[in-house]
Design a protein that fits this description.
about 240 residues; Jelly Rolls
Length: about 240
């Protein structure tokens, strides 16, 4: 009986042990006031041109962020990132980063003929470097528009984000450090290889309802199955001893 009492006390202590309260940090933007964003360098090649603006009525609904890019003939590329100065996370004061969830509503419109990939690129800025991930969305069969679709992913880790140089348009091999402060934003990268374009018109990429969730809480320990088994043994101590024999 003494062993049962000791076991019950241990289980009571386990149940009573303090657990971390949910404190995940959520960043959202539904208006895209450009004063809240710091642009990366702009990369263009092959004659491509591109720009961005806050669109007053192209959102889902209301205001949104719109990138616009024009391409001619041949291999061309436009790359631009925007970092939200308010989307700053400091792991040393706000808790360790276990993963990141990212989501945005996107509408892609192209005047060109073809089937084009369509993605959301969440962006991390840290120590003067930029890192991006590529979350695929529905392809566009142009000319036309995808209309707004929510493109999202969860469980993103540091290895999900890859170094990207906006001055050269090249991808590196580094990853961000989730133990140091970083800021979040999004990037637009478009690579084309058109031919026969005589009167180029711009493609547009509209973004709305940007959201990031920093998961910084320890997942709930899987103690309930162990607790249930132990309590069953305490309730039928003779049966547990019999099985051990």
């Amino acid at each position: 009986m003494k062993h049962a009492i000791v076991g019950f006390a241990a289980l009571t202590a386990l149940v009573a042990a303090p657990r971390l309260a949910a404190a995940n940090v959520v960043f959202t933007d539904q208006t895209f006031t450009l004063a809240n964003y710091t642009p990366t360098p702009t990369y263009t090649s092959g004659g491509a041109t591109g720009s961005y603006t806050q669109c007053a009525s192209c959102g889902n609904p209301g205001q949104a962020l719109q990138f616009s890019a024009t391409f001619g003939n041949g291999a061309e590329e436009y790359a631009q990132g925007l970092v939200n100065t308010g989307f700053l996370y400091n792991p040393t004061t706000q808790g360790p980063v276990y993963s990141i969830s990212a989501s945005v509503d996107k509408d892609f419109t192209s005047p060109y003929t073809g089937t084009f990939g369509n993605s959301f690129r969440p962006l991390i800025a840290q120590g003067g470097n930029y890192y991006i991930d590529v979350i695929p969305g529905p392809a566009l069969n142009g000319p036309g528009t995808t209309n707004y679709n929510t493109i999202s992913a969860s469980g993103l880790t540091a290895s999900s984000f890859t170094l990207f140089d906006f001055t050269t348009g090249t991808t590196g091999t580094g990853n961000p450090n989730f133990s140091a402060p970083f800021s979040l934003g999004l990037a637009q990268v478009r690579t084309t290889n058109f031919s026969g374009v005589t009167n180029p018109s711009p493609e547009t990429f509209d973004y709305d309802n940007l959201s990031f969730t920093i998961v910084n809480t320890i997942p709930e320990p899987a103690t309930l199955p162990i607790l249930a088994t132990a309590l069953a043994c305490l309730g039928g101590l003779g049966a547990c001893r019999l099985r051990r024999r």
